[in-house]
Amino acid sequence: MKLGLIGNPIKHSLSPWIHNQLLKQANIPGEYNLYELEPGSFAAQMELLKKEGLAGFNVTVPFKQKIMMELDAVDEQAKLIGAVNTVKIENGQWKGFNTDGKGFLNSLRVKYPDICNADRKVLILGAGGAAKGIFHTLVHAGFENIDIANRTTDRVKEMTKSNDTSDGAGIITLADAEQRVADYDLIIQTTTVGMKPHEEQQIISLDNIREGTVVSDIVYQPLMTAFLKEAAESGARIHQGHEMLLYQAVYAFEIWTGTSLDEHGLLEALEAQLKGA
């Protein structure tokens, strides 16, 4: 089975390591390769990609929206999100999916099942592609109390407008979010703030957080962001970015192969890989 990733830049992607581990665990002969494409000649490169004999591929920046023009079909959830990060190729047909939101929720359910109840109050920080995927997945899963904080509110309005229940999503400023952190059961940081090489940066302070609140950060380099460090020191429970990274990859692998795998051992191995072990 031939799989891969398209994007730019992708040289340091962990996807080949993860998916080659999954292939090995599933006992499926195959390989996962990187295809770093140039944005200026995307359509022509797609024609070349069709000759590679792929069974499927992942999509990362800057092509998650652009790829949708090349597909024969798009999953309903991916349509709602407006971005595709996984493509399955079957009988020459390309179908697009988005595994970010489901990968996030699956990883959260495994670690903190008690937090995955519809009545939990949720704060999402950021309004980019990852935030949109997570928001729509949480709404689809029945979460009813979601606030979204971003530097600009226009992005949040755009992100929620296609959702039938968007009236239930509160739009607040980052300053308001900082003042109200004690109101939330689950706080999800979806931006790149705090990512290497800017490890000291933090999107909001968690001074007023309640003990036992679950705080998630989708950044996985570093494993412990400044945001998560403050959360842990304040008695919150933390959910790290590499957990979502693995579970969204496992969901993509399931789409391609129909095979469900046990992620637990792989999570520890991925953590060791990120630590450079």
UniProtKB/TrEMBL annotation:
Q: Residues in domain SDH C-terminal?
A: 241-270
Q: In its keyword annotation, does this UniProt entry include Amino-acid biosynthesis?
A: yes
Function comment: Involved in the biosynthesis of the chorismate, which leads to the biosynthesis of aromatic amino acids. Catalyzes the reversible NADPH linked reduction of 3-dehydroshikimate (DHSA) to yield shikimate (SA).
GN (gene name): aroE
Q: Which residues does the UniProt record annotate as the domain Shikimate dehydrogenase substrate binding N-terminal?
A: 5-87
Q: What is this protein called?
A: Shikimate dehydrogenase (NADP(+))
- Could you name the active-site residues? 64
The answer to whether UniProt assigns keyword Oxidoreductase to this entry is yes
Subunit structure as annotated in this protein's UniProt entry? Homodimer.
What PANTHER family does the entry give?
BIFUNCTIONAL 3-DEHYDROQUINATE DEHYDRATASE_SHIKIMATE DEHYDROGENASE, CHLOROPLASTIC, SHIKIMATE DEHYDROGENASE
**What is the species of this protein?**
Thalassobacillus cyri
A biological process term (GO) from this entry: aromatic amino acid family biosynthetic process
